[in-house]
Structure formats: C-alpha cells, structure tokens
Amino acid sequence: MVDSHSNPLGSSPDEVQFRFRDDDPVDHAQVTVDAFLEQSNSSAVRLEPGDDTQALIPHLERIALVEVNFPSFGDGRGYSSARTLREAGYTGELRAVGDVLIDQLSNMRRCGFDSFAPEIRLDEADAQAAFDRWPQHYQAGADTRRTIAQLRHE
Amino acid sequence: MKILTGNDLKTGDVVWWDGRGWSRHVEDAVDAGEEAETILAREEAARRVNVPYVVAAEMADGIPRPAHIKDRVRALGPTVRPDLTLKPADPQAIDWVI
Amino acid sequence: MYKYDSYDQQMVDARVDEFRDQVERRLAGKLTEDQFKPLRLMNGLYLQLHAYMLRVAVPYGTLSGAQMHILADIADKYDRGYGHFTTRQNIQYNWIKLEDAPDLMADLAAVEMHAIQTSGNCIRNISSDHFAGAAADELVDPRPYAELLRQWSSFHPEFMYLPRKFKIAVIASDTDRAAMRLHDIGIQIVEQNGELGAAFYVGGGMGRTPMIAPRIRDFVPLDQLVTYSEACLRVYNRHGRRDNKYKARIKILVHEMGAEEYTRQVEEEFAHLLDEGIEPPLAELERIKTYFEDPAFEAGAKSIDRSDPDFALWVERNTVRHKHDSYVSAVISLKPVGGIPGDATSAQMHLMADLAAQYSFDECRVMHTQNIVLPHVKIADLHTLWTALHEAGLGEPNLDQVGDIIACPGLDYCSLANARSIPISQQISERFAANGKGDTLGELKLKISGCINACGHHHAGHIGILGVDKKGVENYQLLLGGSEAEDASLAKITGPGFNEAGIVDAVETTADVYLREREDGERFLDTYRRIGMAPFKEALYG
Q1: How near does any CA of chain B get to the CA of C474, in Å?
Q2: Are residues C442 and C320 in the same domain?
C-alpha cells in the first residue's frame, strides 16, 4: 500500500490552488501508472511525462483523480495526456501539478485539466487574467465550447 | 582576463561590466576575475542585465579583446553594416573583429 | 487575399494584450528569463547577438501592398530602416527593443498581421508556393488549405510545447517551389478520381540531420485535413524525443520509429479523432476559398518587346509563366551584386508596395529564396515596372542564377552562428559578376548557412556552403548536389573546408568544372548528377 505520509508522490487537496469542479476533492494518495495497473483498489493515479496514458483507458471508471506532473513547463506531453483521457470519456478530476505557471493555464484548461496544484503558488489576479484571456478558440478542445469555425457557420 | 557581457533587458543593447555598472562599450570592460559568477548572478537577479555570460579576453592596445570572434562581432556590430556598428566612422574597426 | 473577420481580429488583439501583459510581468520580475523565453519566442522575439530580433509572420508568403507599407513603417519606427526577408517567407527586424515590442505588435494587428508562432517549439508559420494562385502548373491555389491550417495551428492548446519546432508547407503542383519535402509535414494537394485531397509527407527537415520526408499517406480527403494533421502532431507530441534537443525533431522520430510504425500510430489516432469530430465544417474551407478567387484578369498584350537588351534579360530570367496568358509573375530580386541577401530598406519596401498596388492587384509574395514576387503583372505593364525597379536598384536579373544566393544572417547577427554567411555571399556574387562567368552558368542554386542549423538551406543547394568554427576561426565546408525541389536530394560534402578566401575560389573552381563538363542543356545539378563528385574533388583538392 502506498501511504501519503511515507511517500512524497502526489499533491494533497490543500495544495490545489484552482479547481473547477463541484465535487469534493479526492483525498487519498496517487500511485504511479505501473502501481495502478497492478493494484485494483486505487482510484487516484499520477502520470509522469513518458507514461503511457492510453494504458489507463480500460480502467477509467474506477479513477477519480488523475494527476499529471509537469516537471518542467516546457515538456508538453501532459497536454496530449489530458486530451487523450477526456476524449476517452474520463470525467474525474484531472489535476496539473509541478511547474505549472500563469501562461500555461488557459491551454491546460482547454485540454481538460480542471484542477491545478502549482509547485509555487501563483498570483491570483494574474491567473484569473490568464484563465479569462481568450474570447474564442480556433480548435476543438476538451470543453464543449463552439469553435470559431462552428460559430461562423451557425 | 574574464570580462562580462549580456544584454540590457528593456532595450536589448549589448552591454559590458565596467566594474560599477553596464556599459555599451567593450573598451570599458574590466577583469571580473574570481568575482565573475557572483556579479552575474547578482546583476541578473536585479534585472540590470539579461542573459549575461563570461567572456575570455586579453588586453590588446589597451582594450579588452574577446578571445572568440563571436564576442568581437557582438562588441562592434555587424561587419557587413559598418554604418550600424558602434564605430561607423572608423573604417578600420572591422580589422579588430576579424 | 484572406481578410480577417471579427473572430480573427479578436484573437490577434487578445494575443497583443497577452504579450503586453507578459512583457510587463517580465520587466517587473514576475517572470524569469527562463520562463519568459518560450513566451517571447512564440511571439517571434529572439535575443540575438546584438539585440532583440523580431520575426513577423507572412502567412504562406502572401502580403498586401498596405501590409508591405506597414512593414516599412515598422522598420523606420522601431528598427533601423530595414528588414530581412527569410527562408520561411517571413520578415525579421534586427534591432527591436523589448519595451517597444507590444506596441509594434499592436501596429501589426491593425493591418491583420502578427508575429505569432514564428519561433518556439510549436507549429510555425505555414509556408507555400510563392506563385500560388498564379502558377500555370498548379492544380488549385494551395493557400486556402494553408489558411485552414494556419487557423488550426494558431494557439493550439495541445501543441504549444512540442519536443521541437514544427514546420508545415503546402503546395498544389508537381513542381515544388516550397521545399515541401524538407518540412516536418509537407502537404501536396492532389487529385484522385476527380476528387481533391492531400498527400502527406512527414519527417523531412534540414538542420544537423537532414532528411527528405517519406510520403505516409497518398490521399487525405479535404474534409479530414485538420484531423489528419492533428493525428500527426499528437503522435509526435507523445513520442518525440525530449532527452536531446538535437534529436527532438519529428524526422528523428519517424526515422527511429520507422515510417511504417509512425504511420500506423497516426492512422490509429486519426480513426479515433474522426470519431471526436474535430474537423472544421467543410463550409469553412469554402468560406476561406472565396478570399482566394482570381482577381479580375483582363486580356491584353501577350508578346513582349525585347528590343532593350537589359529589359529582355530581366524578362527572360525574372518573369515566370502565369496561368493567364496576358500576365506573368515578376520576381523582384533582393540580391544585388555585393548586397545582403534578403535585406530591403524601408524605401524599397514602400516602392515594392506601391508597385504591387499599381501592377499586381495590390499583392506581393515573399519567396523562400528571399526575393519578392509580384504575382500578377500584365505583360503590357512589364517594361514600366522594370524601369521603376531598375532605377531603384531592384532590377537585378538573377533569379535562380549563381548570384541569387540564399544566406542566413550568420555570425553578423545570429547568436547561434559559427561563421559569417553574408560576406561569403557578397564575395561570391561580386566574383561571378566581375569575371563574367555568372552569366554563363544558367540555373545554379547556391545556399549558405553559418551553422549546422541550416537556416541557409545548404543541404539543398546545388552548391551548399556551411560555416563552421575551426578553433575560433571561421571555416567553410563545400557541399554539392542538393535540391529542395521535386527532385529533392541532399548535398554531399566535398572534403576538407576552406578559409574565407579559399571558399570563394573553391566555388569558382567548382563552376569551372561544370562549364568544362556540361553537355547541352544541362544545369549544374544535372552535370553533377551525371559525372559525380570525383571530377570536382580532383579540381578542388587534386
């Protein structure tokens, strides 16, 4: 069993700075993808860059929290992981953790992240401005917003 | 000798450490010696310079001359546009670079 | 030409606001340089050898006269009176101040321009055929597809932090004028059973490991173009190497994984994404196409009075057959003898803008060879146009000649460069002008890069030159036999490098071998392919 006190893996709900969900945050430890696949009772998993996101797809029904780690904000694999999970129908919490900064928030949100636990707390006003930055979008995302092309041809 | 260069954060101008601050002219550069890294860290943290680094140089005719051609081009300006260099009136300036 | 609607304008305006905010946070110390650097790069702002450099996007190389005027104004207002047209059909300014950059971008936005994604590890400006919409040999105008992809790739939430930069080119003729197969994705619009679709080539590129892209799909239906592109990118974002930036381009992934396995994964992702329904409605492509309809061509003179020999030479070399027989596409050379390839002063830009307005339906194009095209010039207007160009020093008759050299900025401007490129190109063009051989060589594409990143396309030069650093001294390697066109090939290095004077001599020696060995109608490249490297090596090192 993984114990959150003996294992530094994962963020606690206390560390979540922004959350766009109404349900209660998952309050138990996240396990690695390998551990998750071996361990049938875990409902929280942590993805590192390079982990095989698609391996989680058969198990989405029992997952309440996926934490995607960004060890460096320049490693963009987590964006595709998020979209892959959302497109596969995952509706649980999708938390971005690690080197999460102001200027990546809005894209993360569009890729399906709905909670954010930055390693270093972000300026609230700057973050709000970042979440509100884009009036429209060219691309389909993980949300249900209409794309610019769809709006043009309504 | 070790001289220090970087760019001004706001304007992007190439600048050189002159012992007290940052000068646009390599002629003002001083040997930072053992202090080089300390000065760079302090100055960059205070945003008085951007992306600074240490340049090996030697004194030639009383002027610090960077060892590598890249830093000499940096000190003067583009060799193909003498009019845009720091010494537009000096036709010999490019000889110092090459 | 494409015109922004309120949505496009909102997006570009929002980007200006975002960048202004980012610059303020950088200047206030809320962002470190490491955090800010990718943000400024995604807005085209580099920190170069002397100053900040800004690269402005010219989508698929198409510009209106009004936009060209603004580019000239920007050169005067924010820079030092000139700009540099690049090998990806953009323009860059060398002396920009960070504190001015947001205002500059607002000025660009006012004429439907921007610097979005002209750098950074994201999808870059989409390039295309500089004769698009004018070429006699094109199947259709490729630019509507490029515009569709421009919108899809702009601010793409998933693909802003790819393993490395990502370049896409779209063409629609068998003749490749855009180095399509040397791009991360090359797309050729093709016809199959009366239907239009897109052939996809993935994993080409230059840089330190040049590769010609293999074709991974013969035909993607036009209403699946975005979806297929997204699948290509997602597989790359997932598996592209991030452990070594020199192995991070998609060409390495395709090479290491194998084109077959890469394609299999793309097809799997594609099938999945088709179910997701991410493709813009086909009506959107139709909407975009309406902006690229032919201008109102008029019948007129079809023959040219060639009694003036200077004019006749320019017509022969610098004009290209047009799909309408009363028009030609005219190339304005930015390669005067001894000049800096691709540089144009603000006065020259204003003039080109005026000429575009007067003679080419207010449209001009940037070529990847760093020249400017007036795509639709009436044959009847050619002499007047040429006279104006000639008087302004823009009438050099050297398209695809030895003097039409591609050169990266090199060590004169670029912090990555190992050697200067521009002085080499200046000396070569002067040498061949002075000895008269330049006029006897015919088509000879010479391309110079000042470092292994290959911005000067040296791998694709009939003659290529690569500047290297040899113990602190500039040294130049010579390469032969490259082509960026439909007969794409990668140039091979001749042998040991040369110093600055030596490389100019070596190019002349190489040209002499060609002049001696060529058979009727052979270009330099044809002769090289027939006789191989040995005779050149013999002459150079023998």
Answers
A1: 9
A2: no
